[in-house]
Amino acid sequence: MQRHSFSIYDASAGSGKTYALVKEYLKIILTSPKNDAYRNILAITFTNKAVHEMKSRIVGSLSEFAKDNPSSKAQELMQDVSVDTGLSIIQIKNKSQQIIKHIIHNYAAFDISTIDKFTHKVIRAFAHDLNLPMTFEVSLDTENLLIEAVDAIIAQAGEDEILTNLLVDFTMEKTDDDKSWDISREILETGKLVLNENNRNEITHFQDKSITEFLEIKKKLAAVCEELEKETITFGNEAAALIEQKGIDLKSFSRGTFPNHIASIQARKFNPKNKMFREPDDIAINKTAQDRDLIEAIIPDLLSILSRVYALFEKIYFYKAFLKNITPLSLLNTVSNELAKIQQEQNILSITEFNALIHREIQNQPAPFIYERLGERYRHFFIDEFQDTSEMQWQNLIPLIDNALSGQDEYGDKGTLMIVGDPKQSIYRWRGGKAEQFIELSKDQNPFNNPDKKVTQLEYNYRSYSQIIEFNNSFFKLLANEFQHPDYKDLYENHSHQKVNSKTGGYVNISFLPETTESEEVVVDKTEKYVQATLDTINQVLEKGFEYKDIVILTRKRGQGIAVANFLTEQGVPLLSSETLMIQNATEVRFIIHVLKYLKNSADIDAKAYFLHYLALHAQDNLQVHDFIAKGKELVLETEFEHWLLQFNLDLSFQNLRKKSLYEAVEIMVSKFLNPKLRTSSYVQYFLDIVLERDIRNQAGVADFLDFWDKSADKFSIPSPEGTNAVRIMTIHKSKGLEFPVVIMPFAEEDYSRKPKDKLWLNAEEATVGLPKVLIDNSSAVEGFGEDALEIYTVKKQEELLDNINVLYVALTRAEEQLYIISSKNISSKGEIPKNNMCAFFINYLIAQGIYKEDVFEYQMGSSTKLSLYNKHEDRSKIIPSVNEVLNPKNIKIAQRESVMWGTPQQEAIEYGNVIHEILSFVNTRNDVDLAITKAVENGLITLSQSTIVAQTLFKIVGHEELKNHFASGNRVLNEQTIIQKEGTIIKPDRMVITPDNKVYLLDYKTGVPNSKYITQLNNYQNAIEEMGYKVVEKKLIYIGGEIAVISHN
């Protein structure tokens, strides 16, 4: 079976990429002479869900293959594998049985993981070599660490003089520009550059620069700008003098535009947005002008002067754009150092550092040491969702993969790599995932020494019905014309067309909101119209026979999803979305937060009012809600307030709560204020978990926790319960890799030009600026910063367009049977279709199809009749029973074991027996007693003063007349050997002595009084040992306490 060393699968949406991956994986393990070939395979994918799916598919397929009657799906796959490998069906069955047995016993070596988990494993294994603490914890919440670092820097104002002056100047600059004086947001935004690997090359230029050096650059640039402006005035004066010298009447110029332009340069009022004069025809002369010839004669000189003026202004605006960003940029190193300090203090490592750590280590090393131990293990690699793999992650993997592709294993087989991806689904550029990386590899690029490479395109779409496939084929082919970049154009022109499967039919509906006149209020109205249209669509779909669980609503922005969720909840539509399942939205959790705020500051009237409102509704029915709140607020003295709450059976001391640990305090609130049913709600339980984790990790107090909650509350939601009959709402990014019978996409009219702009790195003259690269805001003004800047700006615009169209591609390819797009025409008063707006894509498509009409707002393609088989929803969600019994800590007795052990007489005997038992595991024969005593002292099991008494006990046991065969020389001794029985249970006899002729002497040590269950246990051991072909000739129990008792059970 010929397998290519490097295979690339270009897999569009729904083309069966997981099937292809699983099939290739199975081919490798089924054709290998070994049963544990899976140990030599590393499969990497993007999400934990994808890891779970791939593992399930592989194990599921193997267990089906191993059956006498595999399922029809498994038989198809078996047939495919048989054709590709030449193995017979019976060979596949037998091999599968052996492999599945092997995997079950070595599941940890079945290596399918996310790239982050793999990187974590490598770093953890080499923590010492990488100068990391062995016990570091991984932090996923990088943004909070960054916020902490920025807060710490601002808190240093007043201590560090240079830093203080810098922060004060920055604040003043922002207020001069009529912007908020709060500088932390800007520093935070720039600080994010440190964490984003897309900027790693540029940031290296700044790493050795101090704040003082940046201040010097700032000063120098301000002086350079001043000089350049003076030069422009000189040129402006020169142009004006030339006109005057020739005696030209200024009225000869049409509308005085040209002289006004010169005057604006002289008066420092030049505006780059105004008309520029670059060609002779740009200078308009009045038809009646007497001095036309004179003007035309000096036009070349005037244009020459102006071209120099414009070149100077390009530089001035370029430098000024950089000056706007220089202050936060000068703090990059300070932020970096503060971040490192926080991580060191808290013994954590941010997940964003993983790739950079490995990257630094493997650079310029032909055989990176951190891969040496792994290199011989992995021979085959699979990378799923390759378009989401960042450049740095890929660069980190190349040396490891190259090693496998260049060599052969002990059977003469070479290593292989299979990557699967789709650049059209690359929507994580902001996280380092770039479509261009996959595009380049699909063409001629090959980073490996082994030239054997093959690109395969998976042509069929197995997910959707034909109508949806045909719509997406024609729609995205048309969108290819939006690109100027040849690779992006080719991607959608030649790589987006998919062949249909046997599922014919399906339905696509594009509708537009009815027209309204533009006004401020319309924005609110529009959202209402979108959510209403979404509800109407859901009802329409339900009428066709679909259920709630078949429907997903996809939105581009989270806020849109929340708007839809709120409206549908009001209308009684069952929903599942991370927004509707957010912890912070739960009434009980809000109540606890308000009580915590009150504990932090008893003068916090708002917090007190909020928690009184909750109590008024849920804990009493004597007073009206308003009266209850008013009365509670009146009682300022806390003791009076507590006494008043007693009337309502609310017995609580706020002062005592403040003395408790955070978790204890919250637990008391839950038990005192919430009724038993609410105490066990998922939201409350999940919130308690968060509190506990924060309390353990940070020893957090109330104030610290509230601070953490302010910043992070919106990140926590309870996991969606599977199997619920409810409409799902999610962002397009979250829907990636999923599929749904019916997709509804409202708000399909995003204005791409309004997207928050990233920063741009531009090349600079190091001699003038002191830096090879500068950071500026990304705006159309960049086009006026010279040719280099224009080129970078154009590339950036094309990348943004690709990312936006990719997001749209992901959304429209999730649908299996029906797709509903709800947009708005946004036609201008002149009847023009808007530019840079998603709605234009749909309007232009309908025009191209010849079906667009200005007064028609709904377009249907295909038949809306439900085609898939009707399967009634069964609620498979499981309810976890609540625990109503409150645990009293006083009832818990903690047994402690110490080296100075003996307390009560019976405890003394048990503890002593346990220690002897442990020391006996070091003893094979009588001669080992002294060594075992030394070991026990070294390990802290006993003290030196106790060694004599312990030695006497040991000699009593090993020298016991009835135990001489058990401690005789020349036998194999197995102390506490694990035995796995046929039915899967595990047993562990204390001591087995195996003679050369396979006879076994069996011993088990016990403490306390004899018990019949010990005899049953001993007989169980005997049966298990004899089933393995040995003969148990003696079996005894030794009771170790004050005295030694040996009891035979033969």
SSE blueprint:
Layout: E1 6-11, H1 17-31, E2 41-45, H2 48-65, H3 72-85, H4 89-105, E3 112-114, H5 115-125, E4 137-139, H6 142-155, H7 161-176, H8 184-195, H9 200-203, H10 211-245, H11 257-266, H12 292-330, H13 332-346, E5 348-350, H14 353-362, H15 369-375, E6 380-383, H16 391-406, E7 416-421, H17 435-442, E8 453-458, H18 466-479, H19 486-494, E9 507-512, H20 520-543, E10 551-555, H21 558-570, E11 575-576, H22 587-600, H23 605-618, H24 625-634, H25 638-646, H26 654-659, H27 662-673, H28 676-679, H29 682-698, H30 702-712, E12 727-731, H31 732-735, E13 740-745, E14 759-763, H32 766-769, E15 773-777, H33 787-812, E16 815-823, H34 838-848, E17 858-862, H35 905-920, H36 929-938, H37 947-958, E18 972-975, E19 979-980, E20 986-987, E21 991-994, E22 999-1006, H38 1012-1027, E23 1031-1040, E24 1044-1048
Parallel strand pairs: 1-7, 1-8, 2-3, 2-6, 4-5, 6-7, 9-16, 10-12, 10-13, 11-12, 13-16, 22-23
Antiparallel strand pairs: 9-17, 14-15, 18-21, 19-20, 21-22, 23-24
